[in-house]
Design goal:
Blueprint: E1 13-15, H1 29-45, E2 48-52, H2 58-72, H3 76-79, E3 90-92, E4 108-112, H4 128-152, E5 175-181, E6 191-197, E7 203-208, E8 214-217, E9 223-225, E10 233-237, H5 239-244, E11 254-258, E12 269-276, H6 299-310, H7 321-331, E13 346-348, H8 362-378, E14 381-385, H9 391-405, H10 409-412, E15 423-425, E16 441-445, H11 461-485, E17 508-514, E18 524-530, E19 536-541, E20 547-550, E21 556-558, E22 566-570, H12 572-577, E23 587-591, E24 602-609, H13 632-644
Parallel strand pairs: 1-2, 13-14
Antiparallel strand pairs: 2-10, 3-4, 4-5, 5-12, 6-11, 7-10, 7-12, 8-9, 8-11, 14-22, 15-16, 16-17, 17-24, 18-23, 19-22, 19-24, 20-21, 20-23
């Protein structure tokens, strides 16, 4: 069953140091590296961070917010003359926006661009003067943060900067927004000031006064308060950055909850937000290398589509570009869907295949590493070709497996699973989805299972032992690639798997067999939906249907048998130790209700590659207030016991 991520329940702080906007000179290399590292950690864990040492003077922020509060406290007739117009600036009345869809949201706002009043006959509002000064410093800060984000992705320094060349102009969706939250008069608790959403942005900057109400959803799915911290800016990752980091960085879900009573010594909440958007023509996510995949939407088109969905009841002309652009900052909110990845990619292992005894060249390491990174970031799995495991061994294991499972029950139960983690698992004895028995039989195998056993080994054990020799080479090379992707040393993951294939490690082979049912029902569950707890999983299959995977759009898609390939899946241990950069895909087996002519009953050999039992299931936090991570054994045991109904593995 898919697990919860280890919770990040505290917003981290990143000191900009030499990268602050008040430093005109080029920061030193050590400062670039430090800030990049801290920002990468924060955006991977929770998607936001407090910035200190940012170089934007407090007096400008305070002046901006105090003049804004004064503006919003005016009578309604004094404000509506600034009602939002087609130049992407202006006043938005109370109760006129709905993000969560559950009712009016209790805020007033003002949208504006830095050049909003350069050709306007109206006199600029009072808060505009400090905004112009603040914006110059903000541009420097934003560019330096963009540089850090590019470096964290292994891109050139200007990778993200070059996607934001029109920021602040009429041809960009980037915009400032003032939000004001007056107290309610009905004394309700937890009134919604701004509904739950993520931003469509690359990054968002929030400048706040000394007030409560802002909340983010942590990685455990709980809402946590994000208090005002004097002298800081709150930086949030948005959807564009999420997509262009291959979903490594989290677009944080956030909202504003209004207090029902006056907070002594605190003003009504007021914030200034800068939504930093990529230029309108930029692709909202990187194009696929697969020519069969559609080209990504542009930033403008993506926002337009979301606006139509979120505000389809609006009477305004949504087809007008300026109108839609101004509306996006209200809709910059609604949580976005990931661009769907609905096809399993193929990675040619090439010289890293198990049949190549010599050390692969550097170019091959780099190519396979790059392709694995793309596949695991997008969908969490890949077909491997050129893997070097002989087809005849795979076929021999699977055909011997089918012959074993077709025996009478009394011939199989003498191999009932024992405490050494090997043996037969009967039909209907496991429940992974929790909705009823799952129609499969299985056999667990460790390569040394029968080395000291008096009984003759089952017929598939000999080819499994031969296959395992090839597998070990292939697995080690894949592990090296995964370490290199994360910027670790070559042995980073290998060192976490030192006790493989012995009793103190859960790595195991599993034969699964799915006979046809007799009740002719459709979509009978052969194996319930789950993500693997492994580092990686290798799946060898015969020519049969049934395996399905949940794609990034939340739809079940068929994963067909492809001759000569191994299906490689990322597991939850890898998901956590890549800081959620890699997906642990949800998958299941659906048993066909009728025989498929020319195809055997489904049988698969699965290798679960598990870390050593004492390894932490996720990296330890540097925050001493965060509990130590569970060990692999302590994480796995309660979940396995629930699915299998056993009291203990030992």
């Amino acid at each position: 069953m898919q697990s919860e991520t280890p919770p990040c329940t505290k917003v981290p702080t990143v000191d900009m140091g030499g990268l602050g906007a008040h430093h005109a000179e080029e920061p030193c290399q050590q400062e670039w590296e430090r800030v990049t590292r801290e920002l990468e950690q924060a955006f991977s864990d929770i998607g936001c961070a407090y910035l200190t040492g940012h170089g934007v003077p407090d007096h400008l922020i305070n002046e901006m917010l105090s003049t804004s509060v004064a503006f919003f406290k005016q009578q309604e007739e004094a404000k509506i003359r600034w009602a939002e117009d087609a130049n992407v600036h202006g006043y938005i009345k109370m109760n006129s926006e709905r993000y969560a869809g559950a009712g009016p949201e209790l805020h007033e706002s003002f949208l504006f661009k830095p050049d909003s009043y350069s050709s306007c006959n109206k006199e600029a509002p009072l808060f505009f003067t400090p905004l112009v000064s603040l914006h110059e410093l903000h541009r420097t800060l934003s560019r330096r943060l963009m540089t850090c984000l590019a470096l964290s992705q292994g891109k050139n320094r200007n990778h993200f900067v070059n996607m934001h060349l029109e920021s602040g102009t009429k041809n960009s969706c980037s915009i400032y927004r003032l939000n004001y939250y007056p107290l309610t008069s009905d004394g309700r608790e937890d009134a919604t000031g701004f509904g739950a959403h993520t931003d469509f942005t690359t990054i968002s900057f929030i400048y706040s006064n000394n007030s409560k109400g802002f909340q983010v959803r942590d990685s455990a799915g709980q809402w946590i308060d994000v208090p005002y911290v004097p002298g800081t800016i709150l930086l949030l990752a948005g959807d564009f950055l999420h997509f262009h980091s291959n979903k490594k960085f989290t677009p944080v879900m956030h909202r504003v909850v209004l207090p029902s009573e006056v907070q002594p010594g605190r003003p009504p909440r007021c914030t200034l937000i800068w939504f930093e958007h990529a230029d309108s023509h930029q692709p909202m996510w990187p194009p696929s290398e697969d020519p069969n995949q559609p080209a990504p939407q542009g930033v403008k088109d993506y926002i337009m589509e979301k606006v139509k969905t979120a505000f389809e009841s609006s009477s305004r002309d949504i087809t007008d570009y300026n109108s839609s652009s101004r509306r996006h900052s209200r809709c910059s909110s609604m949580q976005s869907e990931a661009p769907p990845c609905s096809k399993v990619p193929t990675v040619d292992v090439g010289d890293l295949g198990a049949h190549h005894a010599e050390e692969p060249c550097q170019q091959e390491w780099e190519r396979v590493t790059r392709e694995l990174e793309q596949a695991f970031s997008n969908i969490g799995c890949a077909y491997l070709t050129g893997h070097g495991v002989p087809d005849h061994l795979i076929n021999e294991v699977l055909s011997a497996g089918v012959a074993f499972f077709k025996q009478q029950e009394e011939d199989k139960i003498r191999w009932d699973e024992d405490t050494s983690v090997h043996g037969y698992i009967r039909m209907n004895s496991e429940r992974y989805a929790g909705a009823g028995p799952e129609l499969h039989e299985s056999f667990l195998i460790k390569p040394d299972s029968y080395s000291s056993c008096d009984e003759e080994a089952p017929p598939f054990m000999t080819p499994v032992a031969s296959l395992h020799e090839f597998y070990r080479t292939l697995c080690q090379r894949v592990m090296i690639c995964l370490g290199l992707i994360l910027g670790k040393n070559r042995d980073y993951f290998i060192n976490m798997h030192q006790e493989n294939d012995i009793k103190n490690n859960l790595s195991v082979y599993r034969l699964n067999y799915y006979p046809l049912t007799s009740d002719a029902r459709k979509d009978v569950i052969g194996f319930g939906a789950h993500a693997d707890y492994t580092t990686i999983t290798f799946l060898f299959s015969n020519d049969s249907k049934g395996l399905q995977m949940l794609d990034s759009a939340g739809q079940w898609m068929d994963v067909p048998y492809v001759p000569g390939t191994i299906l490689l899946l990322a597991g939850e241990f890898l998901h956590f130790h890549s800081y959620k950069r890699f997906k642990a895909p949800m998958h299941r087996v659906v048993v066909p209700s009728e025989h498929q002519p020319g195809k055997p009953h489904r049988c698969s050999l699965v290798r679960f590659e598990q870390p050593d039992l004492h390894q932490p299931m996720w990296p330890a936090s540097e925050d001493p207030t965060i509990p130590a991570p569970l060990s692999v054994k302590d994480y796995y045991m309660p979940i396995a016991n629930k699915a299998i109904g056993k009291e203990s593995w030992e």
